[in-house]
Amino acid sequence: MDTEKMTAFPSEIYLFRNDGTVDNEQVVRAIYSLREQDPEGVHKSNMGGGWHSNEYLFQDPRFEKLMMFISTCFKMVLEDNNYKKEVVGDIDASWAIVNKHASFNVAHVHANTDWSCCFYPRMPAGDPGRIVFKDPRSAKSMVDHSKYLDNYDSLAQHSVLALTPYEEELVIFPAWLEHEVHPNNTNEDRIALACNIQLKLEGKDEKGGY
Ligand SMILES: [Fe+2]
Known about the structure:
Layout: E1 14-17, H1 24-37, E2 46-47, E3 51-52, H2 64-80, E4 87-99, E5 104-108, E6 115-122, E7 131-134, E8 160-163, E9 169-174, E10 179-181, E11 190-201
Antiparallel strand pairs: 1-9, 2-5, 3-4, 4-11, 5-10, 6-9, 6-11, 7-8, 7-10
Bound molecules: fe (ii) ion.
């Protein structure tokens, strides 16, 4: 039988590994140095003693290589999504999070931006806390087919996607995709550096310019 399957409404999550552009140890040192200068940090999604930096790390020269790496990876996301060639991704917020033992991040979305990403300078072995993306198709949660399924091999069947990123991995995802971070069940720090990426039309100041 001639048949076709269409997978509608996907949520695109991209994974990239550091290709040597980023000096990961320098990034770790810079984050700890920021925490020393501002031990209180700011309070956002971070709970259980997790530290959250200010949101201007993209302006700090110590993270310049990392921002370059993110921009390079994001260009692939732009191409893969058939954005116009004059569209650029502008990193307009960037912050670090240090989750010590038992720290976690409550569910949230990144408001007022287009794409988001997270790089992981430290991801201890064991169970450092998975990042858990939630199925945005809220209507689908009204039915549960789990008792009819042999397995959950298809991502489309899951109501959540739980990832344990590799150290030095970059995860890029739509800013509207709700996510949380489970508690760090190791005794070492789990360090993440997140960014928001605003789409802009090159040469135009305002978002969407036309
Ligand atoms: Fe987040």
